[in-house]
Write a structure and sequence with these properties.
The chain is an alpha+beta fold. About 15% of the residues lie in helices and about 50% in strands. It has 1 helix and 6 strands; from the N terminus they run ββββββα. It has a 6-stranded antiparallel β-sheet with strand order 1-2-3-4-5-6, covered by helices on one side. The relative contact order is 0.20.
Amino acid sequence: SKFLLEDKTKISTNPRMVYYKSNKEYVFRKDIFNRTCEISLDGNIHATINVEKKVPVSLKTVAMTDDLTIIELLGIYYIISLVY
């Protein structure tokens, strides 16, 4: 299957990436102030990633659908964290 990750960020304090997979567009919105990331499809939230602790960093991932695997979610979150 083909996939694409596109940066749609307009303001650096509100990073937004679009992940195209199987003709679907998953939007990753990272809120750096609340330390959360919401993954949505067509306006509906499909998964969330929360940073639980600062040191050492602990992530809590909740997937409400089987469309995306935990590895995909954490991998894309890691890429977003490297850039923003």
